[in-house]
Each structure stands twice: as C-alpha cells, then as structure tokens.
What does this fold into?
Amino acid sequence: MKNYTKMNEYLSNLAVLNVKLHNVHWNVVGPQFVQIHEFTESLYDDMFEKFDAVAELMKMRDVSPLAKMADYLKNATVEELDGDKFTRDEVLDIVQEDLKKMKAIATDIRNQADEDGDFEVVGEFEEHVAGYSKNLWFIKAMMTK
Ligand SMILES: [Fe+2]
It folds into this structure.
C-alpha cells in the first residue's frame, strides 16, 4: 500500500475508541446496565487488540505508525464524548455509529490492499469487517426502537 493515511486514521480511531468505550462502559445507567457494561468491555478488548495488530502491520511494511495521543486526536475521525451518564439506548446509538464508520474504513483499507496485492492486510481487515458486521447485528438486535 502506497498511502498509509487511511490506516493511521483507523489506528487513531482505535486509540480514541478504546477510551470512548471505557467511558460508556463506566457511565451507562439504567435498565440492562450489566449487559451494556459487558458488551462494551468486549468491544474495547477487541479494539485494543486491533490497535496493536494494525500498528505492527505498518511496522512490518517499514511504515511508522502514529504513536502519540496528540497525533491520534488530530487524525481520528470518531469523536470523544462529553457527559458522564448515558442511557442504554444512547450507548447503542453511539456505538452503532462508530462501528459503522470503522467498518467502512476497514473495507476501504481492505480494498486498497487488494489492489496493491497485499494479501496479509486483506486477510487481517476482512476479519475486522466481519467482526464489525457481527457486533452491528448484536446492536440492532438489542435496540428497542
Ligand atoms: Fe471494566
């Protein structure tokens, strides 16, 4: 892949989402607290693993991944949250929007890598896309409206 801007954007989003998902994990209130608390934990664990995997893919290609919080905030396209209390439905809406965004970026990276013949990146990102699809299904199934 000639251009790693998109992968750095994705990496930055993973870094921001790690914190953002902890925010909703800690601050969700109301019915089904435990369910949302545990679901968001499974998501931040997953994002944390992806964060390392993506940076290592870049290193293997002699590209330096962004590695500073300041740079992640500058390059991320997901937004941090204000507030310290979120209802279940608010959390589901927020997480749904972010996972849709991540799925779209992961799909772009996968397709670009395919054009470049980089099948390791293709393989890694196909798994990411499939994971987002599964979690988006879970979210839709949990939604009451
Ligand atoms: Fe926790």
Summary: The longest strand covers residues 28-29.
